Amino acid sequence: MAAVAQKSRFGGAFWTVLAWVVALIFFFPIFWMVFTSFKTDADAVKPEHLLFFKPTLDNYLNMTENYDYWRFAINSVITASFATLFALIVGVPCAYAMAFNPSRHTKDVLVWMLSTKMLPAAAVLYPMTFLTKNFLDVFDTHFLVILVLCLINLPIVIWMLFTYFKEIPKEIIEAGKMDGVSTWGEIKDILIPLAWGGMASTALLTFIFCWNEAYWTVRLTTTEAATLSKLIEGNRAPEGLFFGRLSAVSTAAVGPIVILGWFCQKQLVRGLTFGAVK
Amino acid sequence: MASLTLRDVRKSYGDTQVIHGVDLDIDDGEFVVFVGPSGCGKSTLLRMIAGLEEISGGTVAIGDTVVNEVAASKRGVSMVFQTYALYPHMTVYKNMAFGLKQIKTPKKEIKERVTAAAEILQITDYLDRTPRNLSGGQRQRVAIGRAIVRDPEVFLFDEPLSNLDAALRVQTRKEIARLHQRLETTMIYVTHDQVEAMTLADKIVVLRDGIIEQVGSPMDLYERPDNSFVAQFIGSPKMNFFAAGDLTPNAGSILGKDIASNIEVGLRPEHLYVADAANAVVDGSMELVENLGEYALVHLRTASGVEFIAKTEKPPAAPNGSVVSFGIDASLSHLFDKNTGARLT
After folding, report:
1. Does residue A46 form part of some domain?
2. Mind telling me how many Å the CA of A270 is from chain B's nearest CA?
3. Prediction pTM value
4. DSSP string spanning B192-213?
5. Whole domain around residue A129: which residue ranges?
6. Interface pTM (ipTM) of the complex?
7. What class has domain B4-230?
8. Nearest 10 degrees: CA dihedral of B166, B171, B172, B174?
9. In a mutagenesis test of the A interface, which of B44, B49, B75, B98 is the best target, namely the one with the most A β-carbons within 10 Å?
């Protein structure tokens, strides 16, 4: 008995240490990025200042003053919010229909939706650029960014919502039908309150995806509708690498979304369906 | 309150037909129980009456109105689901008021009706709780309450007791019976439990594979089952079946019937009594005795290998393995066609 207990205690310690090591390895680049953001560009490349340097906020101040950080940030907020909103507006009725009134082809439709994610984005780069720039004249507009963000995330939104809706017992929806609730009432008074947790986590995840999206936002914008991804991309470039500045921009770009995720995580793991059925 | 008329009601999913033309008349105020083994279509039939399943063929009329194309909520029916299907995010009060709110009932009237229903079901104290804070039995009452407040013409119950434990089931069964006496509303009740069917029903509808096997009062079904399926479904323990060769040589003369080879004889366990050789209809060697105090279930096997059960007041004194003879009152025997299962005479 004692031997077993000791062994398992040793095993526990081993795994704890291993977990920490792995976590630190993964976290280190991010830590280093934040760390570097407080160095000047010159210090950032000097080996003697690798660990010891005079911290400065210049990179951040510089960023808001010279690079118009807030404009990019506001664009990110606007495009991610509206794209999430529209994805939900389309996704909720769609997932509702498939979850509660499935047809023989519902499964095929779901798989088809997911298959749209299989097309490499690069493959349609030229048609997209050509269409939006020369033909539709929507290049570098909020409208385009919102539309693209919405569309590329829609399959995942629908899949997630579908899964959450599926967990709601069908009888509750049927009880609503017996009670004479309209389709809209069904969604508003029964579905949304019950799937609130799932919808919130879907919304949060979509918002994060939109915020982090770089491929399209970088390529379909120049200044007007450019998001934070574009700002990072822009700082990477012509005059060579300015690590201090780049780190500050990157930190400021991912910071808000990390904080948002951190604060929301607790609310998201709330299931409301408990107690509905035995 | 209303009567119900089903005419040649059919249901298909794609090419598979599951209800094969059901004709049924339900009188105003009657308590009707649909009973049958699982997969017999009883729930489907109920859901078609409710308006939750499309009717593929035939007509369902409530009162004089054919309701095939009428929305569930406009049919004047209320349903109690097996899983209760309460709205988990609403209080008991709101659960019960929800349907009335949909038809724009004035708030004051909603309150009166919910309060009245809550009193009938003794759930007044729980009106502010959410379903998750209720026990299974209380949830069941709320589900019934939600059905009552809408003041329906027909109540539909879909296996409402199967999620309750045994003691609560008996009590709730009693309460449903009392509710029917009090409201005098037409009720249709689906169950696979023949005890619920026998105790609650004015009229039992026995279904098998989407076809009505027999319709009648509980005692009709018990005393004169139309076929061997109904005979073995109604009554507990099940009716014993014997071929001519399984019975004693003079069984035919005792029962007063000519037992040909295409005939099956049905004898209920509770009608068998220990008899002397002269009156014996069937002999069997005793394999097991279950003594329940008020009666005993004796499990036996005939020389030809057929198992049967006799329900006796006291367990036979003889040890296991000994042969015991049983007689029966000729009027209590049932004869069926071996091939079709149909009742003879």
Report:
1. no
2. 13
3. 0.80
4. S-HHHHHHH-SEEEEEETTEEE
5. 68-268
6. 0.84
7. alpha beta
8. 130
9. B98
